[in-house]
Design brief:
Blueprint (H helix, E strand, L loop, with lengths): L1 H32 L5 H20 L2 H4 L4 H25 L4 H17 L5 H18 L7 H25 L10 H25 L6 H26 L4 H7 L2 H14 L5 H16 L5 H13 L6
Helix pairs in contact: 1-9, 1-11, 1-13, 2-4, 2-8, 2-9, 4-7, 4-8, 5-6, 5-7, 5-10, 5-11, 6-12, 7-9, 11-12
């Protein structure tokens, strides 16, 4: 059991690092696309293109037929959350720097990580993460109140995504496949595409007359809603929800770096200090023992998640 769980714990940080990069790389390109299409249209292109990729790649409807009614309701809820979360995130980054929105988004992650603190070392790690995020954020509501409103709405929705996503990742399939979580994610993305169509299709319509814009929208979808969500599912299946939440403190750092490289949003000394604090928090965070990890892996394959 220890032999199997050790590679899992080693793989999870790599998946999370990949998720952190693509989580903001796609939105950074989306910001550039805002000059051509409205926010709702870009959000629709992101979600629908991702849904089409999942439909062709995984054909998720095959798995949905064998799920019990409660699991189908979870997928439906996750699809609605994905639609609302992606839309509010884009409405926020259209008004605020990417690093600021990424930092606010992580406040919900801190709340989930706090629920799983079980040692003084993890408490210190969480404290450093909190300090780093607040250092990065520097919230001034008088500057752009609507933007901050969307950012905090996205924060709440991101918490729901992590909670529902972890349940999806740790729900077992009949054949025991580790790709079951990805298939269920694909089904949820199809739901998200349906939810966003009434609001976003009209805004995306101009892209159908400009192949370059359409291709850019598809690229945003792959970078934003396929690669990061797939790596999230693979990581969630390997670690506890609180551990996954704390490791996502890489998100503000990734947002700051990508904001600099893609959008020329130059970080301040305060930004760099915040990035350093959250990075140290991730380094000193202590994973659960192999015995508990193994128990959770068994629990995940049996159809239910271990409570945090």
């Amino acid at each position: 059991m220890t032999t199997r769980s050790s590679p899992a714990r080693l793989a999870a940080p790599a998946f999370i690092a990949g998720s952190a990069v693509f989580h903001y790389l796609g939105p950074a390109f989306a910001v550039l696309l805002f000059a051509r299409l409205d926010v709702f249209g870009v959000a629709w292109l992101r979600i629908v293109s991702a849904a089409l990729v999942f439909a062709v790649w995984r054909r998720p409807w095959r798995l949905v037929r064998e799920l019990a009614a409660p699991h189908r309701r979870i997928l439906l809820a996750l699809g609605v959350v994905l639609a609302l979360m992606n839309t509010t995130f884009y409405l926020a980054i259209a008004r605020l720097p990417l690093a600021t929105v990424g930092s606010i988004e992580f406040l919900g992650v801190i709340a989930l990580a706090a629920a799983g603190v079980r040692s003084s070392r993890n408490a210190l790690s969480l404290g450093l993460a909190v300090a780093g995020v607040f250092t990065l954020t520097g919230v001034r509501l008088t500057g752009e109140p609507i933007g901050f409103g969307f950012a905090f709405a996205n924060c709440a929705l991101f918490m729901l995504y992590l909670t529902l996503g972890h349940r999806v990742a740790t729900t077992g399939t009949r054949d025991g496949s580790r790709w079951g979580g990805v298939d269920r994610l694909g089904a949820a993305m199809l739901v998200a595409a349906v939810v966003t169509t009434p609001l976003g299709l009209a805004g995306a319509a101009p892209a159908f007359g400009h192949p370059g814009w359409l291709l850019a929208g598809v690229a945003v979808g792959v970078c934003s809603s396929v690669l990061p969500y797939v790596t999230d599912q693979l990581a969630m299946a390997r670690v506890r929800r609180a551990t996954f939440a704390l490791m996502l403190s890489l998100l503000p750092a990734a947002a700051t770096l990508i904001g600099l490289l893609v959008l020329a949003q130059l970080p301040t000394v305060r930004d760099l200090l915040g990035v350093g604090l959250v990075t140290v928090a991730v380094v000193i965070h202590q994973q659960q023992s192999p015995h508990i990890d193994g128990e959770e892996a068994e629990c995940g394959t049996s159809g239910s998640a271990r409570p945090v």
